[in-house]
Amino acid sequence: MDKRQLIEWDKKFIWHPFTQMKLWLNEEPTIFIEGKDCFLKDIDGKWYLDGVSSLWVNIHGHKRSEIDEALKEQIDKVAHTTLLGASNAPSIILAKKLADLLSKRLPWGEPLTKIFYSDNGSTAVEIALKIAYQYWINQGIKSKDTFISLKEGYHGDTIGAVSVGGVELFHEVYKPLLNKSIQAPAPYCYRCELNLTYPICNLACLNEMEKIIANNNEKIIAVIVEPLVQCAGGIIVWPQGYLKGLRQICNRYNILLIADEVATGFGRTGKMFACEHEEVNPDIICLSKGITNGYMPLAITATNEKIFNTFLGDVDERKTFYHGHSYTGNPLACAAAIANLEIFEKDRTLEHLPPKIELIKNILNEIAQLKHVGDVRQKGMIAGIEIVKDKITKEPFPYREQMGWRIVKAARKHGVWLRPLGDIIVIIPPLIISQEHLKRLLEVIKDCIIEVTS
Question: Selecting from 3.40.50.970, 3.90.1150.10, 3.40.50.450, 3.40.1280.10, what CATH number does the domain 31-63+353-453 have?
Fold first, then answer.
């Protein structure tokens, strides 16, 4: 296909997400046509190191033969059947694998054995919110109508998910449409709104959370958080102990805890699930992104028997969970997910991460010394570099300068593909990236920060 024709059609017909289209229409887009390992090739034949895993979904690299074959085998049988009033083999097998995996990895409370399928992170969160709300309704408790979430939190872009979101840039405009939610301070130690430093800020954030719950306990449905790393809010890495403390608070006040591990799940933090780091079992967990290695849209919302059992009853009791999607439990997506989980086992993916995590840490320590780097943050294979105008005062660059975008565009000239969050450079490569390519990724970022900010 002719490149100029594709660009013309793109600008004429596609409305790109999280994109100011006025700027897009005046730029030449990158059009990817092929992927292999940790690299993407554009229509001009230039290869890029994929530094953000194609928006955090790619775990085991592009064009994995095991997943390719699983999809081919399934498509020769059937591409889609509904889970409404029927089932299919891949969805059953995957549910068993996920339930076993969650039980093994999160053994500190009620096992998360009940799997509800959907299509993406937002829908997984919507389902979690509705399950949590109806959990109380089914027990005859109708006073609970409010969620607690964190400032700078992000849980997706549908209305329920936005209601518990806290990124002002993304969510402010939709406030008149939103459901009831109370936002607690995020444990964002670099820009602590309480003007405290770790570990005092950690305790203060937990105390503030407990105060909110205590003052509103009768109406609180659940607390929803992204455990350990608030990714879209700026790669905000929590101090040690916050998640554990939050679980203890929820236990004291009999409040449900929802863990949105859409971004942090499947090895991103160095363990299969972020909650493992502090031995926490949520009451509900949301998973997506890395579940199919980016091959197919798929998400799950998993909960325990205790919650599930409150939905059981006679038909006229109307305790049924009336929620579903046309593509719920899609056999192709489930086949891809099964193959993806098997690669984790076959390749022992998690066992190979520690030296890569250490490499990121060491080079981030070098980057932290740069004049316009205010903070570096890392948890496992997730990292963020916060660019500031003044290192001492933490003053950011004016928004109009788009410093983060200027840095990643410079990196693209060097064959590294990145996408920033404002002036925070995001580093989330595929887990299978070699140490050689990881070092190159980080060194290009370092050089481009110097180039653009000097």
Answer: 3.90.1150.10
The token pair at 166 is 């806290």
| CA 272, chain centre distance (Å) | 13
pLDDT of residue 281: 98
User: Which of 361, 367, 328, 329 has its CA nearest to residue 435?
Assistant: 361
One-letter identity of residue 84: L
d(C-alpha 250, C-alpha 150), whole Å: 14
What residue type is assigned to position 159 of the chain?
Answer: I
Alpha-helix residue ranges (DSSP H) falling in 398-434: 403-413
DSSP assignment letter at 279: T
Tally of CB atoms within 10 A around 179: 15
Report field, pTM of the whole predicted structure over 0.90: yes
Q: Contact, 130 vs 158, CB < 8 A? A: no
Distance of CA 10 to the CA centre of its chain: 27
Identify the bridge partners of residue 416 per DSSP, sorted by sequence position.
49
- pLDDT for 376 equals 98
Is the distance from CB of 187 to CB of 202 less than 8 angstroms?
A: yes
pLDDT < 70 stretches in the chain: 198
The pLDDT of residue 192: 82
- How do residues 2-42 score in pLDDT, each as one tens digit? 999 999 999 999 999 999 999 999 999 999 999 999 999 99
Q: Which CATH architecture has domain 72-347?
A: 3-Layer(aba) Sandwich (3.40)
Q: Domains of the chain: which residue ranges?
A: 31-63+353-453, 72-347
Which residues, at least 6 apart from 294, have a Cβ–Cβ distance to it below 8 Å?
Answer: 53, 54, 57, 58, 59, 62
State the amino acid at position 49 in one-letter form.
L
Task: Examine domains 31-63+353-453 and 72-347 and report if their fold is the same.
Answer: no
Helix boundaries (H) for 261-418: 305-309, 331-347, 354-367, 403-413
Q: Which two tokens stand for residue 215?
A: 């003052």
> Where are the alpha helices (H) located in 228-330, listed in sequence order?
242-252, 305-309
371-408 pLDDT per residue, tens: 999 999 999 999 999 999 999 999 999 999 999 999 99
